[in-house]
Amino acid sequence: MNRPSMQTVPGLGRALLAGLALAVLSGCATTSSSTGTNPEDPWEGFNRGVFAFNDTLDRYALKPVAQGYRFVTPDPVQTGVGNFFSNLGEIRTTLNSLLQGKGANAGASTGRFLINSTVGVLGLFDVASHMDLTAREEDFGQTLAVWGVDSGPYLVLPLLGPSTLRDTGGLPVDMYTYPVTYVEDDTVRYSLRGLQAIDARAGLLDQEDLIRGDRYSFIRDSWLQRRRFEVSDGELGEDPFASDGFDLEGTDFDDAFAE
User: Which residue, 135, 139, 186, 191, is the most exposed by fewest CB within 10 angstroms?
Assistant: First the structure.
């Protein structure tokens, strides 16, 4: 099932995805849960406070709604909803791929959008993937990285969750390159963004048991590692969470996320 990533949830929809949901739950690579000082996180005191707020919002608001959504919504419908929002993100990927000089990726993303928007009935069916037509997701934060802008310190944004100074600077561009932003009817626009956030959160529920040790450090380190993987187009090595051969022992979850 295709789920909206962090980069495909703009504006209010991104705001509803709290920091916890946006970080490790997006399929991030494994990392240490050590509580040692991370040089990429010089504002850790501030970030931990914001993280606690976001975590509380997720635990008592977004997560219960997402659990209810998954309980009452048939799997094919959830798949279609996720495909629809992912398809809209292809426009952002095309534009940023062009800005980064990645013509092949821009062409693949454009092809995916055209095929899924037509044959795939407005993106509800991911026909392009069945045709082995894939593209790497790109956002303006990644474009800034290609242009030589340093990531800057790690930053946890209120409501928006994990980011860096560079990625925070790219948020306005990401928002205005996402089609839902231009839906004129406020009710429809906010409903779409709310559904997108809930559907994305529901798709992350099964991965929560991966959290262990110090929650803040684990999520921070996982998010930063995953972000480096995205910016470098996977040149850091294979993502172990994407491998069918990745195994974990039951004892690895002794300190897992507690309900």
Answer: 186
Global pTM reads 0.76
Rounded to whole angstroms, the Cα distance separating 201 from 14 reads 11
With the C-alpha atoms ordered 187, 124, 88, 116, is the resulting torsion angle positive or negative? negative
Q: For 164, phi and psi rounded to 5 degrees?
A: -135, 170
Can you tell me whether residue 110 is helix, strand or coil?
helix
> CA 243 to CA 43: how far, in whole Å?
34
Give CA torsion, residues 11, 259, 216, 236, to 10 deg: -80
Contact yes or no for 241/28 (Cβ under 8 A): yes
Q: Is 119 helix (H, G, I), strand (E, B) or coil?
A: coil
Q: Which helix (H) or strand (E) holds 244?
A: none
* pLDDT means over runs of 10, the chain (259 residues): 45 37 39 62 95 94 95 95 96 97 97 98 96 96 96 93 96 95 95 94 85 87 94 67 44 42
Extract the tokens encoding 242: 């994407």
Question: CA distances (Å), 215 to each of 20, 45, 228, in order?
Answer: 9, 14, 20
How far from 224 is each of 127, 167, 199, CA to CA, in Å? 32, 12, 24
What six digits make up the tokens of 181? Answer: 């932003």
CB 194 within 8 A of CB 13: yes
